[in-house]
Amino acid sequence: SSRKSTPVVGEALSLRGLDGKGPQLGIPHLKLGMSSPLESEGVRRFAEGLDEILVVEEKRALIETQLKEQLYNWPAGKRPLILGKCDEKGAPLLPSQGELSARGVATVLARRLARFEESPRLAERLIALEAKDGGQSIPAFERPPYFCPGCPHNTSTKVPQGSRALAGIGCHYLAQFMDRDTATFTQMGGEGASWIGQAPFTETRHVFVNLGDGTYSHSGALAIRAAVASGVNVTYKILFNDAVAMTGGQPVEGGLTVPSLAQRLAAEGVRRLAVVTDEPEKYPPGTDFPAGVRVRHRRDLDAVEREMREIPGVTAILYDQTCAAEKRRRRKRGRFPDPQRRVVINERVCEGCGDCSRTSNCLAVIPLETEFGRKRAIDQSSCNKDFSCLEGFCPSFVSVEGGRPRKPSAGGEEGLPALAEPQLPALGAPYGIFITGVGGTGVVTVSALLGMAGHLEGKGVRTLDMTGLAQKGGAVWSHVRIAATPEEIGTPRIGEGGADLLLGCDLVVSAGAESLGKLSRGKSQAIVNSHETMTGAFTRNPDLDFPASELKRGIAEKALSAEFVDATGVAQRLFGDTIGANLFLLGYAYQKGGVPLSAEAIEQAIALNAVAVEANRAAFRWGRRAAADPDLTESRANPPSARPGSHRLSESVEEVIQRRAAFLRGYQNEAYAARYRRLVEKVRAVEEARVPGSGALLDGAARALFKLMAYKDEYEVARLYAETDFVSRLAARFEGPYRLVFHLAPPLFAERDLETGQLKKKAYGPSVLILFRLLAKLRFLRGTPFDIFGRTAERRLERRLVSDYEETLALVLERLSPERHALAVAIASLPLEIRGFGHVKEAAAASAKKKESALLALYRASPAPAALAAE
Predict the structure, then answer these.
(1) What is the CA radius of gyration of the chain?
(2) Is 222 left (phi over 0), alpha (psi -120 to 50) or beta?
């Protein structure tokens, strides 16, 4: 074997007990220090007397080819059979792509040995090894890499309707996996070259090409020069993000600035240039741009792109916005402005339509499950203060300017009893810890801390981190192997079924095929963060279901034991952010006897890391305490006062109805609530008579009717700000002087965008709360001739939706039968899809009406039972 693959061979021999039996089975092994040129004399001595040689090397066959050449002229009776990438019949044996696995090599060895010796023990090992092939559960829910929260690419990679884009090398490569009409990529420096070849043979007149400033400095300038020379119609979108972000945030070579880059492009023959930025004030009049360059705000990107695609030849848009990951790093070091501003969402006003997620493409906008449906919240721990979510058409967004988040006191350890030390695993053999998680959340840090702790104790430790395209939101795996001495560890990679502990910092990644393959029902302990962290698909699908039960079941079926703890949620409530979740989980695993290192060594490693030492120590200790005393941890992390009533879900249909009737009483009056109850009771009576024991139609109708009747007009939005605990809850979350800014588009007063015709939001200061209090008191005017807001098209639509729904329910109830029941529930629940404000709600209503027409047609066409026809 080659020097690199030798540890894999060692692991393969030890897997399933093949080691220790090598001499009896006749398995000599030659480790090559240099793979090329192959040292002939030593190889010849090794090969003498052998019947077969298996060459184990990664990638292409280099050693195998040389060995065959050196032994080619040996007599047929003396020349051994040489195998590697293929067997003697040409069938694939060891892979040429990817990495070698110990299990794969062990399986090949066992199969080849079985040809020379009939051994029941060897046959048992082979059956056990082959049983690991396949059979791994691969859940449909995966965590692909995604742009960081606040990443410039969330906005810059958008293209106008009817256009398409090409990708290249850089973080923008990920746009191919999103709804960005971006497909194919090229090598660095070849951006747009494929279009030069395609353009003469397609009816497409123009494409956009994404390009980073680092790539431009490296070789992208050559691609632009080639495009200019060819005369194709193309617009280069050059992201100037101030760093080579994908490989660690290094500065771009050459000291480029946006003005100097614009000058270079103009000199190359680019016909039209525009600068788009989130900070247009950075470029005042007189900035050294070429003639004709305009600076526009990033919200105008679509208009700029539409203009550029109509200009023949090569054009360019310089999109200037600093990398989100770099912003976070520099802010931690005090080298970048950190605006004293945060965005929060009033979930009572929020409709859960997802327009903010679609607009911002940001993973910091997360789901919040409430009694009145799924809403949105901002994850302050991951938010990079990009503020593009404010562009979503919704009045629920509020900026908190000034002040700072209030740190909870629940994470203090004063007066708590000492923790008992657990029994640590013995190190009779190398111990494997497989760590899974999400890129950017500290998974690799946990791996490094364990490595340092092992070093401090004089143990052998080897780690291997697999990050790939793990931007914020992508899967990360870390292999940690610990032994009594370094010599006992071969490869750092944990093989199939080789994990003693799965430390699952993310439920989705932990239930993936890569992670499940490391588990063994005979020995693996799985301790997994159960927090439901949504994937990037949530930005495009507001109703995306998180299959928590399925993911947990997949892990539990593969492991000897499995425990699930909401490390993220507990860390948020104890410490005020989620950064400590992984160390909390490590502490939990340690206390459960899953880590063969002392707590003292781990805490010393935390201190040597010199980053948030006290916070990380506290997270580790509270994780231990959660394992030792879960009731105490629960009482600290979840006091009764910490959870708003709207976050508690109803436990019965009756409770659903009661809570909504009470809400409508406050929304309007008792008569309005009575109207709701009358229709709901009618549904109950008919369903009980015709489909006894179900209740599904009652539940769907109770929720949908409430959704339509409690429409959020100006009075209701005002009430949900002025007559709820929203302001007091903010006071509990923030401290220091701050002011609130509300982002609204009042239908009677807001301006309209000249291109889209949609209302434009504006920022209003805290004095708007006075207006909210007044409007909330005037809600008795709703629906009367004195309701000035009720005359707009949106309000007329909302009232019409209520009356239409009452007619639809009457039709459904008239023809209800057991055979039609499922269709009836689907029809009755459709209004739950009508969410949002303004044009967003109008589009949702139109879509729901279209679905309703199709379902009603099916409902009418389905035959009625004889008993119903007799009625």
Answers:
(1) 32
(2) alpha
SS3 762: strand
Distance CA 493, CA 465 (A): 9
Sorting pLDDT into bands at 50, 70 and 90, what band is 410? Answer: confident
Say what angle helices 714-722 and 726-733 make with each other, to 10 degrees.
40
Give the separation between CA 299 and CA 302, rounded to whole angstroms.
8
Q: What is the 3-state secondary structure (H, E, C) of 666-682?
A: HHCCHHHHHHHHHHHHH
pLDDT per residue as tens digits for the range 773-814: 999 999 999 999 999 999 999 999 999 999 999 999 999 999
Per-residue pLDDT band for 596 (boundaries 50, 70, 90) equals very high
Q: Is pLDDT of 740 > 90?
A: yes
Find residue 525's DSSP bridge partners: 501, 561
Tokens of 388: 């593009």
CB 100 within 8 A of CB 493: no
Gap between the Cα atoms of 333 and 674, Å rounded: 59
- 3-state SS assignment for residue 763: strand
Residues recorded for the chain: 871
**d(Cα 116, Cα 123) in Å, to the nearest integer?**
12
Residue 82's DSSP bridge partners are 53
Rounded Cα–Cα distance for residues 753 and 453 (Å): 59
Residue 528 to residue 467: CA distance in whole angstroms: 19
Measured CA to CA in angstroms, residue 739 lies from 31, 159, 340 at distances of 69, 36, 11
- From its phi and psi, is residue 368 left (phi > 0), alpha (psi between -120 and 50) or beta? beta
pLDDT of 138 higher than 90: no
Tens-place pLDDT, residues 201-247: 999 999 999 999 999 999 999 999 999 999 999 999 999 988 777 77
**Beta-carbon neighbour count of residue 79 at 10 Å?**
16
Average pLDDT, rounded, for the chain: 91
Residue 595 region, left (φ>0) first, then alpha (ψ -120 to 50), else beta? beta
Could you give the strand order of the β-sheet that contains 272-277, starting from the edge strand earlier in sequence? 182-185, 165-167, 207-212, 234-240, 314-320, 272-277, 294-297
Angle between helices 120-131 and 102-113 (to 10 degrees): 140
Q: Which two tokens stand for residue 60?
A: 């292409």
Instruction: Look up the pTM and report it.
Output: 0.87
Secondary structure class of 566 (helix, strand, coil): coil
d(CA 409, CA 413): 10
Give the ranges where 643-783 is alpha helix by DSSP (H). Answer: 653-667, 670-690, 696-709, 714-722, 726-733, 768-777
Q: Are 128 and 305 in contact (CB under 8 A)?
A: no
User: Phi and psi (nearest 5°) for 302?
Assistant: -60, -45
Dihedral through CA 631, CA 632, CA 634, CA 636, nearest 10?
160
Is there a contact between 311 and 302 (Cβ–Cβ < 8 Å)? Answer: no
108 pLDDT above the threshold of 80: yes
Report the DSSP pairing between strands 460-466 and 475-483: antiparallel
- Summarised one tens digit per residue, pLDDT across range 468-495 is 765 667 899 999 999 999 989 988 889 8
* DSSP three-state, residue 268: helix
- Which pair of tokens denotes residue 245? 């972000």
Strand runs labelled E in 439-496 = 460-466, 475-483
- Residue 855's pLDDT is 96
Distance (Å, whole) CA 746 – CA 202 = 46
The DSSP element (H or E) to which 316 belongs, if any, is strand 314-320
For residues 733 and 459, what is the distance between their CA atoms, to the nearest angstrom?
44
Structure tokens at 737: 């002087």
CA–CA separation, 863 vs 843, rounded Å?
Answer: 33
Give Cα separations from 770 to 249, 384, 718, 774, 775 (angstroms): 46, 31, 10, 6, 9
Angle at 745 between CA 741 and CA 748, to 5 degrees: 130
pLDDT at 133 over 60: no
